[in-house]
Amino acid sequence: MSLNGVVSAERVHIGFFGLRNAGKSSVVNAVTGQELAVVSEVKGTTTDPVKKAMEILPLGPVVVIDTPGIDDEGALGEKRVEKTYGILNKTNIAVLVVDALRGKQQADEELISVFEKRSIPYIVVYNKSDLLAEVPATKENEIFVSALKNENINELKEKMASLLKDDTKEKYIVSDLLDAGDTVVLVIPIDESAPKGRLILPQQMTIRDVLDKNCTVVCCQVNELKSTLYNLSKKPKLVITDSQAFGAVSKIVPDDLLLTSFSILMARYKGDLDALVDGAAKLNSIKDGDKILISEGCTHHRQCNDIGTVKIPGWIKNYTKSEPEFVFTSGGEFPEDLSEISLVVHCGGCMLNEKEMKYRLLCAKEQGVPVVNYGVAIAQMHGILKRSLEVFPQYYEKI
After folding, report:
1. Burial class (CB in 10 A: 0-12, 13-18, 19+), 140
2. Where are the domains of the chain?
3. H/E segment holding residue 50
4. Candidates 3.40.50.11420, 3.30.420.40, 3.40.50.720, 3.30.470.10; correct CATH number of 177-265?
5. Matching CATH topology for 177-265 and 272-381?
6. What is the SS3 string spanning 377-399?
7. Of 348 and 262, which is predicted with more confidence?
8. C-alpha distance from residue 352 to each of 271, 299, 368 (Å)
9. Taking a C-beta distance cutoff of 8 angstroms, is the pair 9, 16 a contact?
10. Farthest-apart Cα atoms in the chain, separation
């Protein structure tokens, strides 16, 4: 996969913040080398976050986000500011743009406090340095630039890249569980919810990760699984299934074969599988009237038998023998206040970056609300959670 082929959820998210007319959009355009954002002398030209996936050297594949001014006014302005702060949930690097002639204002200082509280690496960029008689000395995380004259823009990009050097941890979907030469069977149902002509992201990512380990990938549907396993001359190391087929697949796969799901693998990859496994226990105590939030990280056309809004609620009611109340969110929508929620059931989060997924888990943890994801919940409700975690000994021992 080329750098430009990296999906947005796997890219570094860089958020540009600041007061209206500090020159955020001008700095964004200078950094990206594109007219990504509209530039105007009129305050509040940027009214909604503007996102663009691209490649910026030496950073590599990134998502650049230009945000509305944090001092926007009025009822509509307050909503824009709220959206701006919401961008922090997915921000890997924050760039605070300050008008060099005015210097940092109270709103800037407050935003810096938020960066530090959330442990978001940040740079303070003093724009319009060409208007200064003399450029002052700066701290390590500060820089003076002129977006108009393209001065110090390359140095700014180098500073941003340096903030990523500490984040060198390698992440794998499944390849760290395999040895070169292993065979992995992927069960991929093709039904009304499957996107026509393509595979969903977790399936694509898993196939690539397995191939990178020099292993063999065999893909089939549920009704082909039995014959596929029979025809293999070599016993597969692992069977990975789509979560909604967990029940049927577990009856076909022999007990001596490891079995898990794409959703569980994604939970380990970008979330906190330990917390999600703990959250599965809450399904055993759900009662009538309990409010359950079912949250999906993407937006898509819902089919008549949609997994999030139809199948999972049905399975939960059948498993708990109760009538809970279900609330649904999708895309970037996730409630800050979970005080009325008894359990959060989240998708695998393949369309969210790791930063945002962990933020959602943290929100729930701080409010004492258990969280489980689709794969873990479905395995629990089908009585196969322990088996589906056997590939991860540290979690398997907990069940």
Report:
1. exposed
2. 3-162, 177-265, 272-381
3. strand 50-56
4. 3.40.50.11420
5. yes
6. HHHHHCCCHHHHCCCCHHHHCCC
7. 262
8. 10, 11, 22
9. no
10. 79
Residue 97 is encoded by which pair of tokens?
A: 């743009």
**Neighbour count for residue 247 (Cβ, 10 Å):** 17
Rounded CA-CA distance 30/317 in Å is: 54
What tokens does 70 get? Answer: 């944090």
Residues making up the chain, counted from first to last? 399
Element (H, E) at 168: none
Token couple for 143? 């820089």
In CATH, which of 3.40.30.10, 3.40.109.40, 3.80.10.10, 3.40.50.300 is domain 3-162?
Answer: 3.40.50.300
Q: Three-state DSSP class for 342?
A: coil
C-alpha span between 99 and 320 (Å, rounded): 57
- For residue 244, give the nearest of 291, 192, 299, 320 by alpha carbon: 192
Q: Considering just the CA atoms, what is the radius of gyration of the chain in Å? A: 24
Minimal CA–CA distance to 179: which of 138, 135, 214? Answer: 214
pLDDT tens-digit map of 315-345: 999 999 999 999 999 988 899 899 999 999 9
Judge whether 229 and 236 are in contact, CB under 8 Å: yes
**pLDDT tens digit string along 59-109?**
889 999 998 888 766 565 567 677 788 899 999 999 999 999 999 999 999
Is residue 42 pLDDT above 70, yes or no?
Answer: no
Q: Residue 162, CB half-sphere, CA atoms under 13 Å: how many?
A: 11
Q: Where are the alpha helices (DSSP H) in the chain?
A: 24-32, 74-87, 106-117, 153-162, 201-212, 222-231, 246-252, 262-270, 273-280, 312-320, 354-366, 374-381, 385-388, 393-396
d(CA 198, CA 98): 44
Q: Per-residue pLDDT for 356 more than 60? A: yes
- 58 preceded by a cis bond (ω within 30 of 0): yes
Which two three-digit tokens encode residue 225? 């699984």
User: Is 192 or 122 the better-scoring residue by pLDDT?
Assistant: 122
Yes or no: say if 240 and 187 are a contact pair by the CB < 8 Å rule. Answer: yes
Please give the DSSP secondary-structure letter assigned to residue 194.
S
CATH level 2 (architecture), domain 272-381: 3-Layer(aba) Sandwich (3.40)
Angle formed by the axes of helices 273-280 and 262-270, to 10°? 130
